[in-house]
Amino acid sequence: MSEPQEIVETRGDDRVDLLKVDANNDGRTDVWVVDTDGDGKPDVFQFDTTGDGSVDITMVDLDEDGTPEQVVDGDGGLPPA
Questions:
Q1: Which of 66, 67, 69, 74 has the most C-beta neighbours closer than 10 Å?
Q2: 81 falls in which pLDDT band (50, 70, 90)?
Q3: Residue 5: pLDDT band by 50, 70, 90 thresholds?
Q4: Which own/partner pairs from 3-9 qualify as long-range (CB within 8 Å, at least 24 positions apart)?
């Protein structure tokens, strides 16, 4: 049984993927850049570091200044669709 993941606080309740990147050309997304409050600016960054297509690290930049306030293992309660 896997450990429960930490839930992150975001700027809003929506999820709009601004960018999805397949960095290693394996056909699966490795990087997600997400807007959660509808302002068109990213505030959540997610990374697949193991190459399995799932989120391994989530970073949240609540004030959108380029420095994350929170970094957690897993999807932070924000799984990609």
A1: 74
A2: confident
A3: confident
A4: 5/72, 5/73, 5/74, 5/75, 5/76, 5/77, 6/72, 6/73, 6/74, 6/76, 6/77, 7/76, 7/77, 8/44, 8/58, 8/60, 8/70, 8/72, 8/76, 8/77, 8/78, 9/60, 9/62, 9/70
Retrieve residue 39's tokens.
Answer: 């302002």
The pLDDT score that the predictor gives to residue 1 is 46
Both tokens of 63, joined, read: 């004030």
